[in-house]
Predict the structure.
Amino acid sequence: MALVTKHGYNMYEVSSMLQKAIRRSNKDDAIFAVRELVSFNKNLAWSRLKTVSAEDCIDFTTSAIFGGNIDIECATIALTNARKNRDSDYFACNLLNSRDRIEIPFDTSKQFPTKNGHGIDDVKKSLEKAITETPTDFKLIGYCANELMVRYRKNLWRVLMPLANIFPQLETEVKTLRDVDMEQVGSKNESSIFVSKAIMDILKTRIFGKEFFKDVIIPAPEPIEVNYKRIIPDYVFDCHTAKGKYLGRTKKDFVKTEQESLSPLMKCLFDECSWDRFFYLEANGFYNSAKLTPRPPKDVMKQIEDGIVQQTLF
């Protein structure tokens, strides 16, 4: 039996509608969807909005919305009006991956190992150097960030946080993204989008300057009439929904359609880039299990993450 909302709509379809309506700057559909999702589970609605703030918006929407006590409908409208861009999602899907080992600037290897056998301190130094000195080396930055993320997530955030101390709004945004990211650690639906958004915020500040980012406007609460007897729009049914799969819609369709639907669109780094890397990884695996370096014991892993033990073996 399908999970349904207060007025009898499929919960998964309403959740999909919420994010896609925000992408399209469709306020009426977005408010309808958020009300229906809240009627099913308010925490689920907030969780979806957190994802939208990082995945679809270019400015500091996560901290603007989740840094205070804001009404969920006001948050939805703020996201609907916000400038849109999917650079963070592109980075997460195509660049925040280390399936194939590459050389990094520092590599003594006499430390606790990352997935591909680098020393943890070497990866941290390589990542910091790349972000500060070559912020457009997206391949190296994505590689090093993923090497830390898959085993030493807290250590990744320990690298990123000091790099966000460029100006207060950036520091607050990255801190909020860190907090939201760490809330989900260990869940089966764990996402890399909050890590990706933090990295993109830091890189864009270094590439374009802090003037690139615009303030996020939080509207005052207002009464909004919604028609609860409606047909769910066709744009909702992509490859992530049961009906979309039945209709034969693919992830390639999704990438093209959702990019074209962004409103208001603020073009930036990856709008014209190919998603071939992601489709290759999806077909061939996001890691090579035959070449993984064994993890340290669980108790040592925890101590490394908590900063209790030194990160070198000697």
Notes: Residues 1-85+237-272 form a domain with the Zinc Finger, Delta Prime; domain 3 fold (CATH 1.20.272). The chain has 15 helices and no strands. Residues 168-184 form the longest helix (17 residues). The chain has two domains: 1-85+237-272, 86-213+274-314.
